[in-house]
Specification:
- With 112 residues, this protein is α+β, with helices and mostly antiparallel strands.
- The chain has a domain of 71 residues: predicted glycosyltransferase like domains (Thrombin, subunit H, Beta Barrel).
- It is 20% helix and 42% strand.
- The protein has a six-stranded antiparallel barrel with strand order 1-2-3-6-5-4.
- The longest helix is centred in the first third of the chain and has 22 residues.
- The protein is elongated.
């Protein structure tokens, strides 16, 4: 068997395996990293993260929210306390929150 024929047979086997995987794998539509039960509402609004009885205030941006929580972007998420008050810069929105998950610049929060 020559090298060219071996390459063709390897490619044919790979294609056959990919086809079988597609047949076995259920066709599930996945829309990114959305693991929420409720629909997100995009907001892109400036917010303040307030803790330590108002002594610590961080600026952030609420990227989206649900009735149960929100996704907040900050400069450095490691400095944010586990529980805080989330207040919108413009508007009447103010909620007590706790962190559900933490990335380097993003926080997933749950409203109390």
């Amino acid at each position: 068997m020559t090298f060219g024929k071996m390459q063709n047979s390897v490619k044919a086997r790979e294609q056959l395996l990919q086809q079988k995987r597609r047949e076995i794998t259920p066709q599930v539509t996945y829309d990114g990293d959305n693991r929420r039960i409720q629909m997100r509402k995009k907001s892109l609004k400036a917010c303040k993260i307030i803790f330590n009885s108002g002594a610590s205030v961080f600026d952030g941006v609420m990227l989206n929210r649900t009735e149960a929580g929100a996704l907040i972007e900050v400069k450095n998420a490691s400095f944010i306390a586990e529980e805080f008050i989330l207040k919108m810069v413009y508007g009447e929105f103010e909620k007590s929150c706790q962190i559900a998950w933490r990335g380097s610049k993003r926080l997933g929060v749950e409203f109390d």
